[in-house]
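Pilot study result, target chain (181 residues):
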Amino acid sequence: MERRTLLKLVTAGVLPATNGLVQLACTQGGYEPEFFSRGELEALDSLTEAILPSDEHSAGARAARVARYIDVMVADAAEPVRESFRAGLLAVAELAKECYDRDFAACDATQQDAIMARMASNEEHPASETERFFAVLKRATIEGYYTSQVGIHDDLGYTGNTAIDEFPGCTHGSHSQGAAG
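Predicted structure:
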């Protein structure tokens, strides 16, 4: 979303006038975290990129600024949500220290993948803090990515709502006009 569009939406009362939303719309300059510390935001950025990495098809979560999106959403969330994100980031930091004696963001891609695999290993029935956090983080990453310019327009190719001159209906063989039925 362009800065000008965001400001129009805030002025119209469609969006709340939080500093974080304005910062999200600005592509230039530094970002000041709304909720997380800079270190937590860096870890969050690495975690979201590990979930949705850049590849030959599309840019990843980092390019879509998903960590910033999560920061703004968590800043405005209820206290239990805020606490769960902090606890989850702490649990990931402890796991990275235990496995590789470094922060998650300082781990190489192979090490990050191994940590993510452990976090996702019990996705259907999470039992540990990192497993529970993975489910929440994955959902937030996908939401942030596919509501960004990178996700919705560049990756999915959405061009916006367009007027349709006619509505021909279903043309599938068994559903088309004149089919027995």
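One observation from the pilot: Residues 79-100 form the longest helix (22 residues). A full batch analysis is planned for the follow-on phase.
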